[in-house]
Amino acid sequence: MSAKPLVLAGPHGRVEIAADALETVVTHALADVEGAMLVRGRRAVELAAREGALDVELALVVTAGLVLPEVGERAQRAVAEAVGGMTGLQARVDVAIVGVEG
Questions:
Q1: Strands (E), the chain
Q2: pLDDT, tens digit, for every residue of 48-88?
Q3: pTM for this structure?
Q4: How far apart are CA 80 and CA 83, in angstroms?
Q5: Cα-Cα-Cα-Cα dihedral of 53, 20, 71, 96, to 10°?
Q6: At a CB cut-off of 8 Å and minimum separation 6, what does 85 contact?
Q7: pLDDT of 9-52, one tens digit each?
Q8: Closest Cα partner for 65 from 35, 92, 25?
Q9: Cα-flanking dihedrals φ and ψ of residue 24, to 5°?
Q10: First vs last Cα of the chain: how many Å apart?
């Protein structure tokens, strides 16, 4: 996956969405998911556009004591809804829980 911008063709030309803007959407969506935090110090969000869709890969740290798959599923839903709402595209969200803290 790369940090290339998402380019959408429209009836009046193209619309380009910077990877940083999409990462901000992802970050804000995760803020509402209890116990899910993006990994610090390495690439925690990876994006790749494909026809009519966006693939998102997340590396998360989860708060100790929570059920890991449940947090992962909530993160998937929140990010897919946020990205879909902001871009109009289907989002496939893969989550890797790489740590537990606290």
A1: 6-10, 13-17, 36-38, 45-50, 53-63, 90-101
A2: 888 878 999 999 999 999 999 999 999 999 999 999 999 88
A3: 0.88
A4: 5
A5: 80
A6: none
A7: 778 998 888 989 999 999 999 999 999 999 987 788 998 888 87
A8: 35
A9: -65, -40
A10: 30
